[in-house]
Known about the structure:
Blueprint: H1 2-19, E1 42-46, E2 52-59, H2 69-85, E3 88-94, H3 104-118, H4 120-124, E4 128-135, H5 152-161, H6 179-184, H7 186-197, H8 200-213, E5 223-229, H9 231-249, H10 256-263, E6 271-275, H11 281-300, E7 311-316, H12 320-329, E8 342-343, E9 362-363, E10 381-385, H13 397-405, E11 416-419, E12 427-432, E13 441-442, E14 445-446, E15 454-459, H14 473-487
Parallel strand pairs: 2-4, 3-4, 3-5, 5-6, 6-7, 7-15, 10-15
Antiparallel strand pairs: 1-2, 8-9, 10-12, 11-12, 13-14
Amino acid sequence: xxITLSWLACAAIVIVLLTGCSVNGKPMxxxxxxxxxxxxxxxxxxxxNGSPFSCSxxxxxxxxxxxxxxxxxxxxxxxxxxxxxxxxxxxxxxxxWKNNSQSGDVTEFNSFLxxxxxxxxxxxxxxxxxxxYLGWRGNAFMPYVNTNSDNQCYxxxxxxxGEPIVDPSYRRFSYWIGAxxxxxxxxxxxxxxxxxxxxLPMARAIFTYASAAKQYGAAxxxxxxxxxxxxxxxxxxxxxxxxxxxxxxxxxWNNKEKVKALHKASIPFDLILFVNSAAPSIYAKEMRDFxxxxxxxxxxxxxxxxxxxxxxxxxxTADWATGVVHPIGNCLAPFAPSLQRRYTTxxxxxxxxxxxxxxxxxxxxxxxxxxxxxxxxxVNHWIVKDTNAPMPADKSSAALFSTNLSxxxxxxxxxxxxxxxxxxxxxAWRIVxxxxxxxxxxxxxxxxxQDSDYWIMSCGGELISGHNDVWSVTTMEMYAGxxxxxxxxxxxxxxxxx
Length: 498
């Protein structure tokens, strides 16, 4: 028995040594004047149609502070310079578990930037695409990066940038050699994302870059999107949630002149998209409650943007990591003293004079053991196949991607998008607000706040096949459709129209 345990201990040590620990507290991205693109904090490439696009890297340490403040300063300067040269589409992205600023997620995100820059819809608007990759120690070990010919994202970025954009010295040689220690790092990385990294510096960075893209109110037609995956979505929800409340509450003032002025500014984001969020759904519940009050305030002030979602959280039913691993990893939550209360209002029932009816208590811990997209008390939008919608004549991926971005559509089709043939046949999809399954009720009462400006959306495995399937051709086409659905609801003032 002792010998067996000794062998197991030795095997564990060997695996950890072969895997290697990721860099901690030091940057992995450096000044582009002295570094190759694989180690640079700013890289620039060209899409297949010749359109330029670029990406900045900003890294955060284990306590959420900037690792190298020069990264932050350079990123802001790059965005400001781009805005001075013309219209900009800025995409900020915070990665999730098992990734960092030298992982495969870097190539996948940049492949999406290349697809955006290469889209005829983006090109026709003259938008210069720039991405910001918000890096943190999402992997305690050296990540594995698939550089084989079957990795289309890696090959796309190799062609677009002319050289690798991730450095081999920061990765391990085999996926399986580190699969076990990576998986066992769940609790460590969740704690870092939830309680350590998601702080003021990250919120500062995102607001700074978004505000620079909007030229602090002088270039509101520039578009800014924020994306987070897995623990990255958790971090954004924690970082941005409190930071946004002041800006949004300013729109509640019952003063028409102020409302008109504030409507032109508000928060500097056009879309906040979480994909397969690994956040406990209690944070989404709290934010949803606030955004319902926000929506009511806009309605009272006759603000035309009352139907524009502030946050869209999309989760696949096939995501085992958030659907299975998260509940197991947080199985002790029912015993936590801080999660013992019961919600008796605001989960079920329709309000009367803004007062929600009483209902049987719902344990608070149920909002911690499930993520937003797997929490039936919160899901309020679904993506379903629309077999009645005619497919466009050109079913190529590039054509459908541009079609999904286009705002030249009837209002009835603003929630319709298309996916090309990849793993599955080309299809039409629609975002709906009616549960395609069995509606969740309690004693005849429907779920509350189904029209909140926090869209908590569910899709099937045909669109997102698993937790990390967030940069496939199909998912990119779907993101374009979601962006269009949000943009189509935004009724800008006459002076702000493109």
